[in-house]
Amino acid sequence: MFNLVREILISPFGSFASVFALFAMAFWLVYWITKHTTKINESHRFLEKENEKASNKIEEYCGKQDKNMDEIRKDISFLKAMIEIFKSGSSQQIAQSHSPVSLTEYGENISKDLDADNVISRNWDKIYKDLEANIGNKNAYDIQQYCIETATVEIEKFIDNDAILAIKSKAYRDGRPLAFYAPIFGIKIRDKYLEIKGINISEIDTHDPQKGIM
User: Fold this and answer.
1) H or E stretch including 91?
2) What gap in Å lies between CA 177 and CA 210, rounded to an integer?
3) Of 135, 137, 145, the residue nearest 101 (C-alpha)
């Protein structure tokens, strides 16, 4: 190879010029390929980033839609539960309707029958974790609404299966829907959580949107 290069270099000028041009073209071609390969790599990385952004936006959108659908499902389930309670035709109410919602004497007696305070105590770690995840930064009214609605629609988020079976047994004996007893747990969980957070129960009325309208 060395001898071949030597012969090329000592050949007539015209031949040397041709070889030089050939080498120049080769160097330019390497430069061109390197430059465009770099651009292609940069474009590829840019497209990867854009695809990742688009994918994240799609996931975020789908997540929001799933959350909205879940809220609609909960609202429908809550309304269904209220209709079942109304159809049961009970003359005795678990909770008082005036705000802030509280248990009636009848509700307190049912609470004792179901051992509600002990049920809540043994499930408190589970309950508190759920409340912190969903209403940790909410006002007193929103806390009340979440506790009562969740107890009505998804009581399993708050208490263990044994307690749920006890409620179902009483509901069967009394001819009541399961949701009839939900306020007992919703209200007591609300009270305990507000106490831990140092929030006065009177603040419920302060943030009640219906009170604001009036």
Assistant:
1) none
2) 28
3) 145
Q: How many CA atoms lie within 13 A of 161 on its CB side?
A: 0
Q: Is the pLDDT of residue 16 over 70?
A: no
Distance of CA 26 to the CA centre of its chain: 60
What is 154-176 written as a DSSP string? -GGGTS-HHHHHHHHHHHHHHT-
pLDDT in tens, 43-58: 667 666 666 665 665 6
d(CA 204, CA 85): 24
Nearest CA to 81 out of 154, 3, 30 is that of 154
pLDDT tens figures, 65-79:
555 555 555 555 445
Q: How far, in Å, are 77, 142, 164 from residue 134 at the CA level?
A: 19, 10, 22
Residues in the chain: 214
Name beta bridge partners: 102: 96
Domain boundaries, the chain: 2-68, 93-213
- Give the pLDDT confidence score for residue 120 in this predicted structure: 97
How far apart CA 71 and CA 78 sit, in angstroms, is: 10
pLDDT in tens, 87-98: 445 557 888 877
Structure tokens at 111: 């609470």
